[in-house]
Structures are given as C-alpha cells and as structure tokens.
Hints:
Layout: E1 9-11, H1 24-28, E2 33-36, H2 41-46, E3 52-54, H3 69-75, E4 84-88, H4 93-110, E5 118-122, H5 128-135, E6 142-145, H6 151-157, E7 160-163, H7 167-174, E8 179-183, H8 187-196, H9 205-210, E9 217-219, H10 225-237, H11 239-256, H12 263-284
Parallel strand pairs: 1-2, 2-3, 4-5, 4-7, 5-6, 7-8, 8-9
Helix pairs in contact: 3-6, 4-5, 4-10
Amino acid sequence: MRGSGVPIVHYVAPQLWAWRPGRARELAQRVDHLMALLPFEVPFFANYGIPCTYVGHSAIESGATRGDGKAFRQRHGLPADAPVLCVVPGSRTSEVRRILPIFGQSLRKLIETNPDLRVVIPVAASVAGEVEALTKDWPLPVTLIADADERFDAFAACDAAMTKSGTVTLELALAQVPMVVAYRVTATTAFLVRRMGVNVEYASLVNLLAGHMVVPELIQEDCTPEKVAAAVEELFRSKEARQAQRAGFREVIAILGDANPPPSERAAKVVLDAIRVRDAVQRQG
C-alpha cells in the first residue's frame, strides 16, 4: 500500500481514462508513483492526486524505424513491383478467429482489382498454427513471418496494412506504413463495454495521440469485408491518402517525443529516484 515505507512504483499506467475513471481513486491509495506510456495520461492521473511521469512508449525504441524492406522482399521472393499488404490479426486465439476470416474475405475482394497482391502476416508463436490453418485456402500468396527479428523488415516491405488495434498501430506508424484499423469483439463484450461507458473517441493509439482521425477505424458493426476492402483499396489507389496518413504519423511521433534516452532508461530513473527519496526521508527521520 502507498506510504508503507517501500515505494510502490507502477509501470504502465492502467487505461482508466478509457473507462471507469473513478477507479483512479482506488489506485491513488495503492501506489506512490505511476509511469505512463502516453503523454496525456500524466494530467489525467494528476487530477486524482497520483504522481505520474511520462517515460515514453516502448514502441519508440523497438526498432520499427529501421526495417529493411528491400532485403525482406528478396529473401522471401516478393516481386519488387508487387503490391504487398501487411495483415495483423492479433496474438490471441479468440481475436484471430474473429478477425482473420473478415480479413480473408476482404482480400478476396481486393484481388479482383489487385491481381498481383501479396500478403505478409507477422504472426505470434502462440497463434501461428491457427493463422496457418485459417489462411491455407486464401486465393493469393501469403508469407507467414514467425521470426520476431523479421517483423520490422516485413513492415518496411509493405505498401499498406490491414491491422487490429493496439500497440502494433504505433509500430506501423513508426515504420511509415499506411493502415486500416479493424476490430470486432463478441456481441456480449460489446454490450458490456457500452454499458460501462467508453470515454475515448478513437480505438487506435495513433488516432488517440493525434486527437483526430489519422487512420480509418472500422470497429464492431463497421468491421465488414466490404468496408475493410474499400478502405485498403483507397490506400492502394490514392497517393494523397497515403501522404495524409504519413503526415499524421509524423505528428504522432513528435508527440511521443525523442527516443534518447529510451523509455526503458527513463523508467529505471523513476524507480531509482523513488528509492533515493525514500532513503532521504528515512535518514531525516
């Protein structure tokens, strides 16, 4: 508990700003300090009397900006002039089973106008078998990437992305890959979330940080093969749409701030500072 003599420093502030903000009062009794991944979290928790430091999101030191797309295409036999779409269905079996079939139906529509389309799927080991089974009948070449070391090379090789929401949207933004964000939960979960009262306007971190619609979001009832395919087609066809997203990505990257020192070092400093303050108080006592 807070004030016990041992500083309680919580890394990764809970997303109470999205729903149930009143729980921040309970959190204030339990922690001495929070480390936030997103800059707007600091004033939110300050309103509840919780000291909070923005240390930065780990995505900015992930290496997402350093992918080698040309080498990736060569390694995996992807034609230099073929359109390549990154598909990110998630890392949990339940979300893969909900989202990947929708993405597959979207691709069947996209190949009607993009017959040379290739798909790259960076896949988590936990769902690799599920993804392979669900994509084996897709009517276009699919490259599954299970090696985490190739993830950002894969991003750099892609012209656009069809992705679930989550941290991956920040990674794709850092890699300058235009994207369409789509997500669907069960009807029961959707009902409960709406009853709880969602306090955010956007689902993707890119749009949340920018404060406006940088990337299209197709959530729940809007997450249909027709709408997803149309949004991706717009990215393939419109240079202006791609440029607009990349301008928004630069805005988001500026908001996230400099990667030097990296978030991991900033977080370590917060912990060390908390220990020094505790030690100084004990010496004075």
